[in-house]
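Slide 14.
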Amino acid sequence: MRTMRLILLTMLSLLVAAAAASAQQNTPPAEPDQNTGLSSLAGGGVDFGFRGTFFSDGSDEARYQRYRDLRNGVFAEAFRWGKQDDQQYWDVHATHVGYRDHQYAANFNKFGKMKASFEYNQIPLFFSQDTRTTYTTTSAGVLSLDGYPAQIQGGAATSAIYDNVATAFDLQLKRSITDFRFLYSVTPQLDISGSFKNTQKTGEQPWAGTFGFSDAVELAVPVDTRTTDVGVAAEWNAQRGYLRIGYDGSFFKNNISTLVWDNPLRSTDAPSGGAGPAHGRMAIWPNSDLNSGSVSGLFKLPSNSTVTAYVSLGSLSQDDALIPFTINTAIASPPLARPTADASARITATAFTYNVRPTSQLWLNARFRSYDFDNHTQPFVVPTTVTYDTSLSTINETSSPFAFSRKTLDLDASYTLATATALRAAYSLETVDETFRTFSSTTQNTARFSIDTTRVQNLTLRAVYEYSKRTGSGLDEQSLDDIGEQVSLRQFDISDFTQNRFSLIAVERLGSNLSVNFTTFVGDDKRPNTGFGLLTHDNSGVSFGLDYIPDDAVSVGASYQYETYSALQKSRQANPGVQFDDPTRDWMTDSGDHTHTLQASADLMKLWPKTDVRVAYDFVRGQSTYIYELVPNTTLPPVSQLPAVNNKRNRISADARYMVTPHLGAGLVYWFEKYDVDDFAFNPTTLNTVSQPSFMSLQYAFRPYTANTIWGRVTYMW
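Slide 15: predicted structure.
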């Protein structure tokens, strides 16, 4: 509280000084940018001050700061410096300087000759500040339990010891992006461009490992990856079109490609059929390279028509070393089919369009797209494997290199009536051929119809109806039987369906300064040929809003939205044997999601001399339910229903700025945010210990928070 009073007194002093200085100023103030507070004209400025964030007891500080850094202290919120004349323009700017979410950028434009830009952007991801683990990192990608498994295996301790010795840590990830682009005009018709983008991820994220259903662990997997994207292109422009030739490459590098962790229940390896290994091992994110070349162009034809074409040929490769079937030294690991992945694919992508406007009222467009992923990876022959590093078994299986080809045809037509009403119709045909799926190919037909009008008195109206139907062919039910699934199961992304969706947007102007809006949508998804899996999915929503702008100084708006989604899925609880074909063991999940959103804001710009005030309020409340249903003649035991998952967020923001002089301003910003959540699976009362039954947890839970952020700022522009 003492720190809070100090901040408030400092801000009050600044505002008093600003008011006194303003009495001596007659020059109208500069117009600062709404986001940074700095002028967007040539020149520059800096926005700095002191920020404090305060939480109520037990708050989840990490969730409040999920993708941002709101630590207490002095900050430089924004900096900009630029210059412009009739020949060139340049600027440099920075935001959140010195914090985990900082950004730096520079732009240069020599008009008609060269453009260049540079950006460095850092994005934090704060998972949790109160996760706990007993694992320690002994080397990159190796997690140890420091001898505790030996105590448990020898009977000197139980798994409860892990809760006593676990230490707390911040679970965080950071993404750093460096992006450079340039364009050089060799001649008025020829441009050369290039780009370089480097994305680096470092830190840790939640992960899972298992030695079987009775011995699972949650881990903080280390992340140290780098993705480098490069591109060069030459583009020739002429009066009737252009031609572009380009190269793009994307190269992914993982510096920690293998994860090894200790078994919490054992310190020695056991032979096949025994109690299991002392360690677990898995491969994570392999290195990969993508190289592609492309040619594209546009050509203008008579009768107000144009054609465009794009063709890209690419090669994807991955050749990381394969890890053995098992890390268990008591089991002889079966030989690998080859030492490295030796995986590769050829990628061909095309796009062609033709559009024409034969009259001022009629517009026609046709577009064809294709994407072909041709997998050249040689299959792996696997006679024997090791399950959970515990049991050696014979399977005699061969891998199935997945490949697919997608083709899409889009046809659009639009006709504008004399009353400024546009009628539009569209048709899409998509065909997908896939290898090693229950449907070898799927065909989806989609029709859309819409009407737009802007001159029915003061009413603007848009209505859209869409109908879509997907059917599959080449059904291979045997492939489901081979993996122990019900043959009437249909996978979500390829199952037959029919979908309907209607949406309406209406805006009515009530006078010159007040408008109201209304939107609604309703849709359904039916899957008639599905025995098990998703059967239906329905959604609907409605919203109301108003905007009131009496003059240039005042803008007020408010809106309310309600959305609901429901789905019905079917399954069967059955073991192999007689139960497998017993319909009395069927059960369904009827799930529903309901969301209420309320937003209100007011901008008071220069309503008082030299003063801008913005206030906003956001409220979101959501609920998810899962109702389990049994068939009337069920032989399953009664169902224990799960509680609903609830979450709610209230957010208030206020921003006041007073321009002391045309170049100097002082302001005060306040944010209040309260988040409540009740999730039965991730509740702190559920994950109340590291040593869960048959499971070692990080205690990564969903917790509520109440946060207040306040900062005083000074803006100076030159």
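Speaker note: The two ends are 36 Å apart (CA to CA).
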